[in-house]
Amino acid sequence: MKLLQSLTSPYARKVRIAILEKGISGRIVIEAANPAGAEAETVREANPLGKVPCLIRDDGTGLYDSPVICEYLDSLSQSPMLIPASGEARWTVLRIQALADGIMDAAVSARMETLRKDGEKSADMIAHWRGGIVRGLAQLAREPHLSSGFNLAHISTVAALGYLYFRHADLTQSSMPKALAEWWDNAQSRPSVRDTAPPV
Q: Residue of 46, 64, 138, 165 with fewest CB within 10 Å of its CB?
């Protein structure tokens, strides 16, 4: 299998952490692919949306986006399980994944808006997305998943917080709840987190 990905994509980082946590890195070739660069056609052939990450399975089928890829990876081995099979625990993990992914969506959108030319940027939209990030962080800090374990809820939280520290450092300084910041600091010692950090 092959994973098309970008080292700066929080969604791709989530998938790379899942691969390491599942212990299946030997089964997957990780390949840099810029959807807007020289690899654009390769990305579009695997994913008609032209986005990464995209997992190309051995039969050539492309899987996208990160929630689907992570669920597929989780199906490849029984231990450790990143997504509980059933019950309230399953819905909690999937709900927190959606919350963390939503924070990433807002953070990426805000980042892209700030890169627009002067006169084309929308301060209202940037404020809207940043407001969603702040509310999302407050909710993450209230979630029970921080207390123990390391499943897809934790992985998604790492990906979201990592992107904020990478691209929105001012928000991490002004709006990161203390409990979440402490959890983040502790998570840095985990090999899968340390080994997937975006380039400085």
A: 138
- Cβ–Cβ < 8 Å for 45, 92: no
Nearest-angstrom CA–CA distance, 26 and 177: 37
pLDDT digits (tens, 9 = 90+) for 125-138: 999 999 999 999 99
Which ranges of the chain would DSSP assign to H, the alpha helix?
10-22, 40-46, 66-75, 87-114, 123-142, 152-167, 169-175, 178-187, 191-194
pLDDT tens digit string along 15-71?
999 999 999 999 999 999 999 888 999 999 999 999 999 999 999 999 999 999 999
Query: CA 45 to CA 39: how far, in whole Å?
Result: 10
CA 113 to chain CA centroid, nearest Å = 20
Q: In 3-state terms, what secondary structure has residue 27?
A: helix
Contact in structure between 140 and 153 (CB atoms under 8 Å)? no
CB 102 within 8 A of CB 132: yes
Element (H, E) at 38: none
Q: Which of 110, 113, 103, 116 is nearest to 162 (CA)?
A: 103
* CA-to-CA separations, 63 to 1, 28, 47, 71, 97, in angstroms, rounded: 11, 13, 8, 10, 18
Q: Looking at residues 5-20, what average pLDDT do you find?
A: 97
Q: What's this model's pTM, rounded to 2 decimal places?
A: 0.96
Residue 30 exposure: Cα atoms within 13 Å on the Cβ side: 16
